[in-house]
Amino acid sequence: MSAAAGRDGGEGWWRGGALFLCAVMLFATVDATAKHLVGRYPAPFLNVVRYAATMAVALAMLAGSGRLRFWRTPHRGLLTLRGLMLAVMGTCFMTALLWMPLAEATAIYFMAPLVVVALSPWLLAERVGARQWLAVATGFAGMLLIVRPGGQLSWLGTALMVAAMLGYALLQLLTRRMAGKVDAQVQYGFAAVICMIATALPAPFFLPAVWPGLVDWMAILAMGFMSALAQVLLILALQRAPASTLAPLNYFHLLLALVYSAWWFGRWPDGPALAGIALIVAAGLSLTLPARGLRLARAPSSLDSRQSP
Fold first, then answer.
1. How is residue 241 annotated by DSSP?
2. Is the per-residue pLDDT at 1 higher than 70?
3. Distance CA 184, CA 305 (A)
4. C-alpha angle with apex 301: 105 to 85, nearest 5 degrees?
5. CA-CA distance, 162 to 33, in Å (whole number)?
């Protein structure tokens, strides 16, 4: 690699990293806003409004790039399943926030990359070594410290958050199956439409008892557009740097969840939960940091690092 290419690659990674961090901040803010709103309005109602905003941005993006007929893409079955996993993930995540503290819920959600490692030998025929299995075991131990069967966390909220985490893991596996086969913008648009349809079906049965006022409507719509903007920033980031080099920045989301949990909701995780969060972060970073190196000249991979619940 020439010196000029090295400089371009380094500059590209910093730009990609800045965009990625902005996306992560938006994702964390969406989660905190959902936690704030879900106590007053049903999760299916909030989800359908959010995905309506997301779909509008996705369709505008596809129209601008001349890809509005995105349904003609190959792998429609996998794309539909991927969109359904995103809808399940978003619904379970938001509903779980009724009973789960934000920081603990986000930490369980971040078990997904470790579950991907555990499932990849069977679903992707990938080889997993002893170091990766140790990371999976460490992350699972961290989740047990957070959940602590018989502890104070709601079993229903925990079950829903585990379902959201498994949905996220399956979404990542499906995205990796389509890596290099379907454009990231098409994946985004397809998922937005499927999520909108899937969340619209139950929404009429979960209408608010009291409709939102102007301030709450603004918060709900802002949540949708922040989620959409975060997806756009994520695509732009992955066009500038490989997903594998940006993956460690995902854990900034968990730090923000801790800040929001303490500042917005007045809830710090207790000592064992903080230890569990630290174990999950350490396990996740052990899988991503060694892979990073300085491979800045590699082509960006598909949209597999983060999806908003």
1. S
2. no
3. 12
4. 40
5. 20
* pLDDT tens profile 171-209: 888 887 777 788 888 888 888 999 999 999 999 999 999
* Distance of alpha carbon 85 from alpha carbon 87, whole angstroms: 5
Are 161 and 108 in contact by the 8 Å Cβ rule? The answer is yes
Give dist(CA 85, CA 276) in Å, integer: 26
Distance CA 110, CA 76 (A): 28
DSSP tag of 111:
T
- The answer, yes or no, to whether residue 166 has pLDDT greater than 60, is yes
Phi, psi of 302 (to 5 degrees): -75, 180
Q: Which two tokens stand for residue 18?
A: 């800045």
* Position 237, amino acid: A
Buried b vs exposed e over 4-38: b needs ≥16 C-beta within 10 Å?
eeeeebeebbeebbebbbbbbbbbbbbbbbbbbbb
Each residue's pLDDT tens digit, 78-137 = 889 989 999 999 999 999 999 999 999 999 999 988 898 888 888 777 788 888 899 999
pLDDT at 2: 41
